Amino acid sequence: MTDGHAESTDEMLMIRYKRGDRAAFAELVRRYQTALFNFALRYVKRREAARDLTQEAFLRVVRRAGEFRHESRFSTWVYAILRNLCLDELRRYKHRDHASLDATRDDGSAWIDKVPSTGVKDDAERGVEQERLRVGLSRAIDALPDEQREVFLLRQLGGIPFADIATITETPENTVKSRMRYALDRLQKELSEYEEYARALR
Fold first, then answer.
1. CB count, 10 Å around CB of 120?
2. Contact between residue 42 and residue 152 where contact means Cβ atoms under 8 Å apart
């Protein structure tokens, strides 16, 4: 087989891993560890816990590899595992801390990249503006109702289709879409001073 391995889908990698190919699992970790960590960080708002939960999610992928159905999306499966771990963690840790400002660097950059550059501001001024946006975005996401924040994170961080989010959250798809719409409306309102970015959220 050629370097086509590098182009394997997640599902193909799972098949290879179940046949004993450890490199296939390493590739899945490479593809997902950052996004899963960012999702967990947003969910539980504690960096060390997010690291532990991400590691546990991969361990459960290993233990439950035989349960994976190859007609399903790997991304949906692994996010469902992590979401359940996060929910369990929140039940154990009832008093949530606000995410630190440092944490906004981990999961804000992907969305900030959507802001079109006008070419008018110099790099220093734009850097200050983006830092303000990171902080504002972090606070706006944290302020979302739990159900709306969950859908927003699955969609934006995980790139999960609405139908799969409905499966993960055990919620009708139309309800999922409504939660996403309400989340976007709230974020646009909170970030109204950044009109270009607010439009990009759509």
1. 7
2. no
Q: Which amino acid is at 11?
A: E
Give CA separation, 11 vs 14, 15, 28, 31, 114, in Å.
5, 6, 10, 13, 29
Has this prediction a pTM greater than 0.85? no
How many other C-beta atoms lie within 10 A of the C-beta of residue 130? 18
Question: Measuring CA to CA, which residue among 164, 188, 202, 177 is closest to residue 80?
Answer: 164
Structure tokens at 55: 């590691």
Helix (H) or strand (E) segment spanning residue 171: none
- Residues 26, 47: contact at Cβ < 8 Å? no
1-33 pLDDT per residue, tens: 444 455 799 999 999 999 999 999 999 999 999
- 134 and 90 Cβ atoms separated by less than 8 Å: no
User: For residue 155, what are the contacts with CB-CB under 8 A and spacing of at least 6?
Assistant: 162, 165, 180
Give the type of residue at 123: D
Residue closest to 138 by CA, chosen among 114, 165, 102: 102
User: What distance in Å separates the CA atoms of residue 108 and residue 151, rounded to the nearest whole number?
Assistant: 16
